[in-house]
Amino acid sequence: MKWVSPFKLAKAGILGMNCRNVDFIGRYNLRRFYPLVDDKLKTKLLAEEYGVATPTLRFVVKTQHEIGHIEDRLMALNGFAIKPSRGSGGKGILVIIGRRGNQFIKSSGTEVSIEDIRRHLTNTLAGLYSLRGAPDVAIIEDLIEFDDTFKGYSHEGVPDIRIIVFRGYPVMAMLRLATHASDGKANLHQGAVGVGLDIATGQGLKAVQFSSPITLHPDTKMPLGDLRIPDWKNMLLLASRCYEMSNLGYIGTDIVLDKSRGAQLLELNARPGLSIQVANGKGLLPRLRHIEKIRKPHRLAEDRVEYAIATFHSQGI
Amino acid sequence: MVSRVPFYTIVALLIFTGLCTALLRHVQLGIPFLPGQQEKVWLIEARVDFNSQNAPVLASLDLPDNPPGYAILNEVAASPGYGFSIIENDGRRRGEWSKNTTSGAQTLYYKAQLIRSKDLDTDLVDVMPTPQAVFWDGPEATAAEYVIEMAQNKSSSPESFTRELMRLLLNPEPGQNTGLLLANQSPVIVMDKLLNQAGIPARISMGLQLEDARRRQSLTPVIEIFAKDRWLVFDPSTGQQGLSEDILLWQRGSNSLLDVVGGVNSRVSFSMIEQTLPALELSQSQFAGQGFAWLGVHTLPIEEQSMFKLLFLLPLGAMVVVFMRIIVGLKTSGTFMPILIALAFLQTSLVLGLVSFISIVAMGLVIRTYLSRLNLLLVSRIATLVVLVVFLVSFLSLVGYQLGFSTGMTITFFPMIIIAWTIERMSILWEEEGPREVVTQGGGSLFVAVLAYLLMQLPLSGHLSFNFPELNLIILAIIMLMGQYTGYKLSELRRFRAMVEEDKA
């Protein structure tokens, strides 16, 4: 057990949870805009309105009786993802990448029956995965076919890019790679690999798993140092536009790179986690305070992205 | 940015109100800040003896009325066959015993419990008394005039005159004039007469010297003079102004101490003992219905009181939870579940509570794994769990009872619904994050619960929260202040340590 003095943390500009909650989430995220991001269905519809690309929505399961004859609708799809609309922390997301006979194949490779999927849907509707256990709906959307850049970098699951957007400025980014340990999930505390990304270039900076630095992907043994996200600026633009869309000052945007459709917004998070600092080896606080001091924020997403690129590059703040 | 001034004002106000009310109630009502504090009480018994003359009897005894330096806690009269009542008029309190037919020796008792009070002053008097007329025999009149003149020469106020007069009369070698006056009268009576003659309203009152375990005591006279707006007491044996601490003014003014109609050979004697009483009990009986007393919950029926005893402990538990989550950063399952468990521990005792809680949750988890295969809807699954938990609890109680633990029954204090939800959450946690997280969160909850329990079971916290509920305002202020804490959690000092250590390397 080793502890570090709080002054050292403050000097490194680390954002703590209390500070995040009071100074940023509490101050910049108005409660009434939360439902837009807590409900993935609402986020999706809103994103379509604002021209922000998201994975295609196939259909929504809203009532229990729809589950009884769900097979036909699911059989028509090759791969799909079932998500609880109000799930949190990646809970309750079931990704099916194909079929073998009557069985469905999960992203981890294990097979599940239609009964398992029905139970999953039932649980979802009953609110097992939603915040506070409220009744929920399940959304079924297209599978992401991730870009070749990530080939070999992700064991099961889709690598996604988390960009923290503060007052519309992208301030910090990381790539999250699912591992065997994280069971295909992209959450760092569950064992996913986080790769800090240079805001200016999309170049990988350093990688961590379970808070300790690593250089190779634990499952595929691919070197993580040379990762560079293609089409980086567009991704920043997409993230930056989420500010106008959601009206939330401090958000985490989860973006995936689809092989054919480009950057796609997966979901927004009004309470983004703090591990991104560990993956970047850098504290968020100096960047957030810098943005806070801007008197006249840029109105166009393009300008904000330019400003962020110029300010927050790897040698910058 | 929102101004923080109103916030801190509210916090300061809460702390101020809490502290001030508590202090006021402590001072005014004498509620002790520490539990188990003892206070001294005098139990005084006045015994009236007389011989009845085979006629209706009316005995009337002068009773202490707001004696300076003392307060009467309670009083009773014990006399078989007699009717007793306390009569107040003209600022005099008298106890009256009456009986239609009596014969032989009679004994009446009056008992009072008194405690020392800080209020030393006698009451203000509205009507200015006038000095009484004084009569002396021939030579004494001249001597009296001379003594008064001597005292007046050396004094400027009624108080100093009294002191000077007493000094003259108490002189072990009396002069010619004082010797004449004291020849066939006691000094007290002479003092009273001289004071009245000098135009100072004066009277003789009777005080009781308090000494532990004394019997058959009689009253000793003291002199009271009237100055400005109140009666001042002088001790005629020393000539000092003021009452020595161990003297209780029993009878004030010159009305009689004891009147007995229908009896002869009446006399009154006093016995006393010093007792100790819990200070809390004392303040409750002493100040019932006075001042800030309505703020306390003592006025409620006992049943409600015991409920409040638990309720008022809740803020303390809430503060522990807030502290552990915000400052320490411990993970608990369910925000305030730990307090409810801690409250249950208060009733079951710690070890038994822990054992039964863990065993119920463990059994519940086993059953829950089977339930998850049944593919039930969430609400019905939880309801199933609630019912099963009820059965589990009754089963454990029965087993405990059969094994001879009468305490087995106390398991029922655990909130069933909370246990059911805990099992459900733990089970999902187990499936999603693995047993490690279950142990972390479950252990965290139990740790916070035990901590809250340990704090709440302290006699001091129980005493303070129940007798000074307003102190909870301070806890509220602390909780609000912690809600503004933006520093690091203790757990974050570990979580982010790799980053800082790397920087160094």
From TrEMBL, chain A:
One of its GO terms (molecular function) is ribosomal S6-glutamic acid ligase activity. Keywords: ATP-binding, Ligase, Manganese, Nucleotide-binding. PANTHER family: BETA-CITRYLGLUTAMATE SYNTHASE B-RELATED (PTHR21621:SF0), RIBOSOMAL PROTEIN S6 MODIFICATION PROTEIN (PTHR21621). GO terms for cellular component: cytoplasm. Residues 44-302 form the ATP-grasp domain. PROSITE patterns: ATP_GRASP (PS50975). It comes from the Bacteria. One of its GO terms (biological process) is SOS response. This is Alpha-L-glutamate ligase-like protein. It comes from Nitrincola tibetensis.
